[in-house]
Description:
This is DUF5655 domain-containing protein. The protein is an alpha+beta fold. It has three helices and six strands, in the order H-H-E-E-E-E-E-E-H.
Amino acid sequence: xxxxxxxxxxxxxxxxxxxxxxxxxxxxxxxxxxxxxxxxxxxxxxxxxxxxxxxxxxxxxxxxxxxxxxxxxxxxxxxxxxxxxxxxxxxxxxxxxxxxxxxxxxxxxxxxxxxxxxxxxxxxx
Length: 125
């Protein structure tokens, strides 16, 4: 684990295992992924950004699990699922979709299937 990632989780260290589960699964599936740690998010990209993790407040605080992590995916369509916290269409044909996870078990086949769609969508732009 690099220093920048550890600093990102300094205020919420209990969320680090959630990130490790997500990043590990993404890197296992897409070893060419570039990861960039920024102040407010950690981005995952191939040609373009396809996913990021953050602590964005996409629900009321009392509705968020403790710990939590927000997975944001760039999708070609509006994702319909009770797992979706917020979705927006910043421009036609691109949907930004926020999914809250509260345990490593939520990095499951369904979520990774959506990641695969986001990865493919970003790679074909």
